[in-house]
Hints:
It is a single chain. The protein folds into three domains: 1-163, no CATH class; 165-219, no CATH class; 229-329, no CATH class. 34% of the residues lie in helices and 19% in strands. The chain has helices at 26-46, 62-76, 169-180, 185-196, 199-202, 206-219, 229-239, 263-272, 316-329, and strands at 58-59, 80-82, 86-88, 92-99, 128-134, 139-145, 244-249, 255-261, 277-282, 291-297, 303-310.
Amino acid sequence: MNMENNCMEDGEGETSPGLNISEGESNEKSSQAMKGNEKIDLVHSSIQKQLIPVIGMEFETEDLAFKFYNAYAYSIGFSIRSSCHKFKSGQLRDRLFVCFAKGKREIDKRVSNVKYHRAETRCGCLARMKISCHLNEKYHVIEFVSEHNHVTTSPSKTHLFRSHRKITLAQIVEVDMADSSGIAPKATLEFLSRQAGGRESLGFILDDYKNYLHSKRTREMKLGDTGGVLEYLQQMQLNDPNFFYAIQVDEDDLITNIFWADARMMVDYDYFGDVVCFDTTYRKNKEGRPFAMFVGVNHHKQTIIFGAALLYDETIQTFTWLFDTFVKAMS
């Protein structure tokens, strides 16, 4: 289901364009809210009535309700997010779609140590659409609030909001072709933007492009579809029973970290492992993943390798697994 189930505290949220709440006089905020509501009334008068939520409106699924309210939000100039399910007596199910500016940011005790503060994007906006459903029935709109307490965004910036960004299947095909051809993401984005008639018509931004490529390359490392990595390690172990390798996977069976060491490395460590140097500064592969090496020096003052690893990231959990695996490999 393509909806944003952001079950978050009021202190968390997305940084969105067109809204930067600063401390000011209450009359100034009221003036902004009045201007925003005037804009909403003007937009309501210029769009078809069936595109405006009303009490009693029906939807077959939650996803259709989300898409409808998101399309309405695009016309007005704001982003939306959805709350968690609520169950009442095991029969009634509610879903609440709210403006991105709902809630307030909690006070952070570390605020005095922060040099650059994020722009405040939440101002307690009450704009919302609430739907409810009995079991085996359609969803009905039971509440709709159109008034905002902030100025909504201009049409030229609405496409930057998170709920209005999505890469289509046709765009994914073009992105994959450009990536396989070695074209840089920025150049590809510029080409697709011109093809779509401008950035505002493209439907996604550079961050979405990079996130897609990252998730795609991660999926390619899935067990059983590793591009020959797992098969290569297994073949090495068949050729040399002393060859050691270990693979760490996440909850989705996606490979995160790989470590390997052959018999020569283990013998070298047994003789010259008094001092070990560990380094993760090399990122030469296409995916930019950290390549780690355990190295030392032999009696000829030559550099020797005790083991190597291809890592997903450089977190404490990753290094803990890597060092434990290295100890196990070297007995």
